[in-house]
Amino acid sequence: MTRSRTPNILTLFCIFFFLISVSSTHPMPRKKPYNPCKTLVLYFHDVIYNGQNAGNATSAIVGAPQWGNYTILASQFHFGNVVVFDDPITLDNNFHSKPVGRAQGMYMYDTKNTYTAWLGFSFVLNSTDSQGSINFIGADPLMNKTRDISVVGGTGDFFMHRGVATVMTDAFEGEVYFRLRVDIKFYECW
Amino acid sequence: MTRSRTPNILTLFCIFFFLISVSSTHPMPRKKPYNPCKTLVLYFHDVIYNGQNAGNATSAIVGAPQWGNYTILASQFHFGNVVVFDDPITLDNNFHSKPVGRAQGMYMYDTKNTYTAWLGFSFVLNSTDSQGSINFIGADPLMNKTRDISVVGGTGDFFMHRGVATVMTDAFEGEVYFRLRVDIKFYECW
Amino acid sequence: MTRSRTPNILTLFCIFFFLISVSSTHPMPRKKPYNPCKTLVLYFHDVIYNGQNAGNATSAIVGAPQWGNYTILASQFHFGNVVVFDDPITLDNNFHSKPVGRAQGMYMYDTKNTYTAWLGFSFVLNSTDSQGSINFIGADPLMNKTRDISVVGGTGDFFMHRGVATVMTDAFEGEVYFRLRVDIKFYECW
Question: Any idea which fold A34-188 has?
């Protein structure tokens, strides 16, 4: 009797591991984990050139609609303004903290009846903690408390990373200064 | 005789599953499936500001070459024109259908001897069916019937999605209105 | 004695393959291979319109800060200049070699105290070797010998590809012509 059991167990093994091997050789859209493999919280600070702050300005209006100009953000919720920036990145919300890198790229205000922008920029990090760049694009509906954009790639310490970044307006002063908090969650880390 | 077979079968198992375990611990560039895990067909509608249609316009020229201006697309196939837009997205090709979201971002005409554009934009969807954003970039050779661009990321219902979108000019009227059909195929869905 | 060994071996199998199956059903951020699955080395050539080279120019200034204009790159390291381009791509460093495609998109100078740019563009390849597009974004600190940007997607032969591209300034003449060498390494190939 005992003898005859052995083949049966082997048969079960066959079926069991056949199923495993099928599932791994025939790839399916696999449900990936939703826990970030790495996170970062950073702040960046934007001072728009207004014709009088050349020394401090970190950004400038470089595109405007027909009704705009290059030292004052346009009427109609700044619709059509394109701004190029090179903003300091800090670990806390203090403009005067030692920068850990630069946020470089552009945003463009793209709606006539509320404040929204489209962002395309990179974080270029250069500190003892992180060396490399993180590349972002996405829509930024400014009136929402939090806005999610995509981390579409990275280099250096962030080689091939992807993820989602949550952007929050941490402070603003008139139409010249604003500070954004960015919570970066990487879900592909390599 | 029967007795001695058992070890042989076990040996075969060993070899078989050793191979499986090797292949899964030593990751190879695995051939992913080419069937989309999700698809969407959407239309968006662009009305360029021409100096006289402020009420209806959904986009505006915000960059132009030296020979251009901001109410008429430039000569030489509009080379150098940058347009910022906030266009309604609809489920069918009717401009007056209830929008399910907004297409926001920019396109720039980038060739002197034919119509081509470079696109960077987001679909911000806000309907009972879909909540979230989809981010696109890519080249758009307008004279081709279909053009493929990249879906480089997404948020909300489209968290971390990637794919390819096929863009088709569905209609245009002079140089003020055009409608694009976008067939989105996601190949990474999470 | 021999008889009783068989169950023990089976028990070991159970434990061994149970561990394998656990590791494959509970996905972890898996360490992907760092060997590219495909590589390309290409050159592209940019001739900026300066008011006198309309015939040869492949790019044009389309955005400028308040202190700039559209035929001369601005002072302060060209900060704020936005350039749209349609540049020939060649297999070697010869401007007159037969192009294998076009580099189309834009760059914007984004720093006041050194040369840096932000890039958003596509390679549209159309040769016997390659048909399809490759989409790039990233920061370009021009004074570094090599700069890494992200390959965020592709179409055609480069369907869904991702990777990293290393950009090098191969030559430049005054402020009108430059040539970039781009070493593309794809790490996701599909």
Answer: AOC barrel-like (2.40.480)
C124 to chain B nearest CA, in Å? 7
Residues of B in contact with A20 (CB under 8 A): 20
Is the CB of A65 less than 8 angstroms away from the CB of B63? no
Q: How many CA atoms lie within 13 A of B144 on its CB side?
A: 11
> Which chains are adjacent to chain A, needing at least 3 Cβ pairs under 8 Å?
B, C
Interface check B13 vs C, CB under 8 A: yes
Q: Chain B contacts of A31, Cβ < 8 Å?
A: 190
Q: Report ipTM (2 d.p.).
A: 0.82
Q: Measuring CA to CA, how many Å separate B57 from each of A111, A113, B72, B108, C102?
A: 11, 12, 13, 17, 32
A81-134, pLDDT tens digit by residue?
999 999 999 999 999 999 999 999 999 999 999 999 999 999 999 999 999 999
Q: What are phi and psi of A75, to 5 degrees?
A: -65, 180
8 Å CB contact between A151 and A16? no
Q: Is A77 left (phi over 0), alpha (psi -120 to 50) or beta?
A: left
Is the pLDDT at A1 greater than 50? The verdict is no
- pLDDT (tens digit per residue) in B3-22: 444 556 655 555 555 444 44
Predicted model pTM = 0.84
The answer to whether C14 faces chain B, any CB pair under 8 Å, is no
Question: What would the pLDDT profile of C149-180 be if each residue is shown by its tens digit?
Answer: 999 999 999 999 999 999 999 999 988 999 99
Surface of A (164-183) touching C: CB under 8 A: none
